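idk why but the lab printer keeps eating my pages so im just putting this in chat instead. protein + nickel (II) ion:
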Amino acid sequence: MAIRQVVQVGDEVLRQKCFPVEKFDEKLWQLLDDMKQTVRFEKGAGLAAPQVGILRRAVICDVEEGCFEFINPRFLQQSGEQSDVEGCLSVKGKHGTVSRPFKVKIAYQDRFGKEHTLAAKGFFARCICHELDHLDGILYIDRAVNVEKD
Ligand code: NI
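predcted complex ->
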């Protein structure tokens, strides 16, 4: 495992639409393991593959409920609303208030390609929304009502 460098805002890689993961091989597992180590090292709640320069649809959410890997995730349902402060490992030294759904349901694949669904609410749902946005080149600063320095 290795800690990977987190790409910072201004880098075009953060603005691309990511490609689906098609190979569930050792290269993917290495990426996921590295992303997990990186998000913990950086004390983040989540990390998306484009943040380490890989344009594939894979994210990590490291929250109270556990440390999750979502490959090729997509929304099945979104409901309710919550508004709270977010930050991003790719936008260092800033935070901003973002409105998100309170509950989400997603479908995704695990590291072996097996399909699953998952329901989340509160902070976990917020984390999922934030990370899935990264896969389409969207940053929280695009949605925030205000962005301030920490
Ligand atoms: Ni982020």
